[in-house]
Every structure is written in C-alpha cells, then in structure tokens.
Amino acid sequence: MRRHLIAIASVVAVVQGLAGRASVPLAQKPTLFSRGSYFAQRAREDAARAVRRALFGDQLSQLQVGGPRAIPDGGRVVVTGSTSGVGLDVAREVAALGYDVVVCGRDEKKLERAVALVGRVARRGVESARFDLESLTETRAAAAAIGRADGLVLCAGCWPTTLRYTEDELEAGLQANHLGHFLLATRLLDAGGVARVVSVASTAHAATRQDRLELDDARWTRRAFDPLEAYAQTKLANVLFARELPRRYAVEAVSAHPGAVDSELFRDFDVALPPDPFGLLPPTVDASIGTLSTTAQSFLKGVVGSAPVSVFKKPRDAARDVVVGLVAPGLAGAYLSDGEPTETSPGAADDAAAAELWDWSRSTIDEALALIDEERARGDWDF
C-alpha cells in the first residue's frame, strides 16, 4: 500500500509540473478566461485520478454497500440515449443496482436489443420508450407516456459536422443535446417524484470562444457554422441547465463529464478514428495531455505491472462514473469528472447565464409546440 501511495504522490507531482509549464505560453492569447490554464489543470487532475482508479477502483466501487443513495431503493430511472455506448452501459449499471430502468432511444430494433442486454443484469423491471429528441412532439408524448420517474440520466447526444435543422426548425445538435432534454426533464419533473437529474456534459463546455452561450444566433443564421463551437455550446448548456434546475424545481441536479469515450458520438465524422476531444484546444495543451498520459502510464507500469491509462475510456468505465452522479449522496450541484467533483469554467458557474438559458429554452420550446399545435388544429400538420 505504501508504494502505491508513493507512486500516486509522484505522479501528481510530475503532472503538476508538466501542466504548469504547458499553461505559460497560452496566457498570451486573450480570452475571457485562460482556457489553457483550465484544461491543463483538468488534465493534471485526470492523470492523478487515472492512477487512483487503477490502484483502488473507481468511485462507484467505493460506495458503501447498503449505504445511503440519492435515488430510493427500487426507484424508477429513465436513461436517454441508452441503446448503445455510454448510455447503454449506464442503463445496465443502474439496473444491476436494483432500480427499474426505462431505456430510451429512437430506433425500435436497437431498443429491443438494449432491453434484452439490460435485462440480463437487471434485478427489477426494464421498459423502453421510443422517441427522437430531435422531435419536440415525440419528446412531449414520450414524457407523458413515461409518467413518473425517481431518477433521470440525460445521456443522449450528437455532434453534427454540418448545419442541420430539425422538424422544429432548430439546430439539430442544440435540440438533441439540450432542448429535447429540457422538455423531457421538465415534463417528468412536473409529474413529480424525481429525486436527482444527471446532465451528461463534457469538459468541452469550457471550449467555447467567449465562455458563454450565443443564444441570439442559436440557429446559426448570421455566422458560418462551426461544429466544434456548436458542440461546445451545447455542453455549456448542459452544465448551466443542471445549475439552474434546483432553482426551478425541488430536485437535486448533477452535471457529469464522462471522459473521452470512443462512441457513436463521433458517427458524423468522416475519419477512421474519433477526433481528439482536446483538438478543441491550442496545440500546447494538446501536447501536454499526451505527456501527462505517458508519464502516468510509466509509473503504473513500474508499480502494478500494467498501464491502463488511455486517452479514450471504455464505455462501461465512463458509464460507472455517470452512475456515481445519479446515486452517490452529497453531490447535489456538483460538476463531476471521472465521478469526482471538479471545477467548471467561469461561464458555466454564471447564475445569470443559467437563468437566461432556462427562460430562453422555455420560450423557444413553448413557441415551437404552440405553432405545431396550431398547425394540427388547422389540419396543416403532416403526420
């Protein structure tokens, strides 16, 4: 045990030095806050957490068996995006803990497969809800059909590489990643019973150009579409949504960065491998992350004979970190990375911005649904 603790201390010391050096040249670039410093600090923490995980297990495995949980025993948990990737593994982990699970997705065949896979480890019931978050009418109907829930994990997401609009004339990424979830969550919260909501976000929330949302041009009609900026904007919205949620409802909310995971999130990218999420960053920081990972691997190989640290996490590992945000006590209001609380960017901690996003989201959805209902009443809706 002593050599393990020494190894951890050594890794932390090394990565602190590396990250500190990496942030120096980035300070010359004028930004609302120092993104270089922020990401270097997060990389330093990630490297240390990877070592602790390899030696002592993840945060979920360290929760006390039979101890207090944020979701009551036997509760019903809704998981979006749970037909594949991280979402599927979240549903499996939640089911294995003894909760009823509602698997959500838009493809019927994938839903059937997911229900079967979750059912293999489930200790209670497994249901499915088919709907597309890119359709407000489908999402509204799904919320009504689901009814009551005790927990909600908003895990679905996409990363469009080109500008695309939904049937509701909203930018596809923003609707799938934020607005659809906003509608689903608020309708389920209106039904009562939800104890905690987990908004699956990303460290990319800190990669927006100005560390703030551009709600005045959310449809990208006045500027050239930038897929990296657009995705970062949606992830910032995820964190701000979780921040504002407890102010609007009597519910606990957590936002969680699951880590860089090789998943279907990158399905729209025309490349053999998924893009480096840190490609959002200046080259200096990107290079430092590789150095941090290499350093951590070297220490682990010498101490425990293996080097499990990798840029990309396995979906199950990422899922277990998300589930910590759902069930672990004492995390209300936290932003998690690898299942542990950490700092957001300053823009994601802006209460005024969170309130503005909430009001904008509510009015945008209400206007879109009102228009749809009006068209249906006139018989103009294409069913």
Strand order in the sheet with the most strands: 3-2-1-4-5-6-7-8
Note the main sheet: 8 strands, mixed
Helix content: 40-55%
SSE-based structural type: alpha/beta
| CA gyration radius, whole angstroms | 21 Å
Determine the oligomeric state from the structure: single chain
Pattern of helices and strands: HHEHEHEHEHEHEHHEEH
The CATH topology annotation of the largest domain reads as: Rossmann fold
- The outline comes out as globular
Number of strands: 8
Mean pLDDT: 83
Q: What is the C-level CATH assignment of the largest domain? A: Alpha Beta
Write out the CATH superfamily name of the largest domain: NAD(P)-binding Rossmann-like Domain
Low-confidence stretches: 1-32, 271-293, 299-309
Span of the ends, CA to CA: 64 Å
SS summary, helix count: 10
Write a short abstract of this structure.
With 383 residues, this protein is α/β, with parallel strands linked by helices. It has helices at 2-23, 35-56, 85-96, 108-119, 136-146, 172-191, 227-248, 283-304, 315-327, 351-378, and strands at residues 76-79, 100-105, 126-130, 151-154, 196-200, 252-257, 335-337, 340-341.
Kindly list the characteristics that best describe this protein.
disordered N terminus, 383 residues, globular, Rossmann fold, 2 domains, 8-stranded mixed β-sheet, alpha/beta
Summarize the structure in words:
With 383 residues, the chain is α/β, with parallel strands linked by helices. It folds into two domains: 91 residues; 271 residues, Rossmann fold (3-Layer(aba) Sandwich). Helices cover 48% and strands 9% of the residues. It contains ten helices and eight strands. It has an eight-stranded mixed sheet with strand order 3-2-1-4-5-6-7-8, with helices on both faces. Helix 1 packs antiparallel against helix 8. The longest helix has 28 residues. The protein is globular, with a radius of gyration of 21 Å. The protein starts with a helix and ends in a 5-residue tail after the last helix. The relative contact order is 0.17. One of its GO terms (molecular function) is oxidoreductase activity. InterPro entries: NAD(P)-bd_dom_sf (IPR036291), SDR_fam (IPR002347). Keywords: Oxidoreductase, Signal. This is Protochlorophyllide reductase.
